Amino acid sequence: MDAQKTAHSSEDARSLPAPDSSSASSEGATPAGPNSHHAAAAAAAAAAAAAAASTREVKADEPAPPPPPPETVHAHLNSIPANLPIVLRLPSTKHKPVTLVPGRTVSLGKFGAFRADDLIGMPFGHTYEIVGGNPHKNKAGDLRMVANKTLADIEETDATNEYINDDGESQKLTYVDIKQLKDAGLGGRELIERTLQSNKNFEQRTVYSQDKFISRKEAKHMKLFTPLHPDAATLCAFHFERAPEKIRFLRPDALAHCLAYGSVRPGGRYIVVDGVGGLLVGAILERLGGQGRVLLINDADSPPAFDILTSISSLPKSWVEQPLRVLHWAATERAWQPSIIPPVDDPKRFMLDRDRARLQKRRGVYDTLQATRAELFAGFFDGFLMASNFEPLAVLERIQHSLAGSAKIVVHSPYQQPLVETQAELRKRDEWLHVEVVEPWSRRYQVLPGRTHPEMNTSATGGYILSSIKVFDADTAERLAAEHRQEVADAVLAQVRAANAMGTGAAAAGNVRKDAPVDEGDGERDPKRAKVAE
């Protein structure tokens, strides 16, 4: 059926009228590009992380974990893995998530069952047919890859369907007969042939009606399925058709609009507020490809349990752990301070190895939190994306100081009213340009020779999207740049002083070479310190 019917999406965006308000004036507003500040922001964050890391034990000879080789990532994305969730598209066009465990049988209900070992390692995107087996007895059948059929042009005809009367008496085979044929092991193709032969009105149909009739029977009786990439788009479509309220009615095309409006790209730095089970974060991490930063803000002290994010098995582990950092809302305030964790190597305290390991773990979490807060306050993020039930304007006022010039903001909501109110408020402020609210609209098309037309049934809405661009005027941009340069210089100077202090302590303990004595004035003659001080 999938080979005979294909569809593509036609997307459009209907701009909603904004309330009467004074539009933001762009005169004198200079969008400062964020790329020029990336190195400075990264240096400040690295300095804060190094200063925090100097208080805990770090093995100097322990190298950082290397990124996975390209061939490993390529194989991970294109072959069906074991013990990881994937998504199967059934003949009924519905999606079913399964986990392939070696040595076990996967049941698809009335569509049959197959052995997981037969599918592990096979490529995604191909259609497979279950041959043999008995779904009622959970007896697994064999898998056979189905080749795509060539679509043929249908000749025009003057036949009509005026003599067709689907009163239930045109089909000679009853439900009991069809069930007996299935229990006897009759294949789906043979069962469809029997159904066509026993239907007395089939020959009176037009060729278009005959093809549609066959397609409906294939969707009902054929034991076909197609394994799909468990990426963000596939999982978004699955949850949208099963429980759209879980993802706040975020349709796949609306998710694509959010990523496009936010200019999400590899190497970018983004602040995210995710209230859709990790779907938005997972889509952004896919775009980053392991390069960049995603700072997730949530309302829990511990990292949130995003079930959709963990289901995106197409994401390598390094693509999630390296870019992703998590903060709770209290940590976004400068006045907030976490509980101080004592140093691990305190000579005045006696600790067991178990207590020392526990304290060292807590110290590592504390240092990571402090480094993440320093990165947030350093600012110059490339964008902000939000899909949550929080009030949009309150969230924007909290994080707007961490955004760079020309940073994009994107807010998705299933309701129009909160976005329109936020739009009216942002248009009064000079630092926001091109504030608009749109409703993404998508419609599927059947594309077949002589039968191309839009589908009659489609979803009503995929929500609404607010987007805007953050800018600075010339005076503010110059002032922020000067302040940021001073902050970076102070952070680097503090890092150098901490390193020199550690070196002086090591020399006093006799851990330096005898031919390299450390004098009191060496720190002042250090060319690095002199350069930073200048």
From TrEMBL:
Gene Ontology cellular-component terms listed: nucleus; tRNA (m1A) methyltransferase complex
Pfam families: Gcd10p (PF04189)
Keywords carried by this UniProt record: Nucleus, tRNA processing
Tree of life domain: Eukaryota
Region feature (Disordered): 1-76, 504-534
Gene3D superfamilies with a match to the protein in the record: Vaccinia Virus protein VP39
Listed Low complexity bias regions: 15-53
Keyword Nucleus: yes
Subcellular location(s) per record: Nucleus
UniProt key word tRNA processing: yes
GO BP terms in the entry: tRNA methylation
UniProt biased composition (Basic and acidic residues): 524-534
Family assignment from sequence similarity: Belongs to the TRM6/GCD10 family.
PANTHER family: TRANSLATION INITIATION FACTOR EIF3-RELATED (PTHR12945), TRNA (ADENINE(58)-N(1))-METHYLTRANSFERASE NON-CATALYTIC SUBUNIT TRM6 (PTHR12945:SF0)
Protein name, as recorded: tRNA (adenine(58)-N(1))-methyltransferase non-catalytic subunit TRM6
Organism: Tilletia horrida
Gene: TRM6
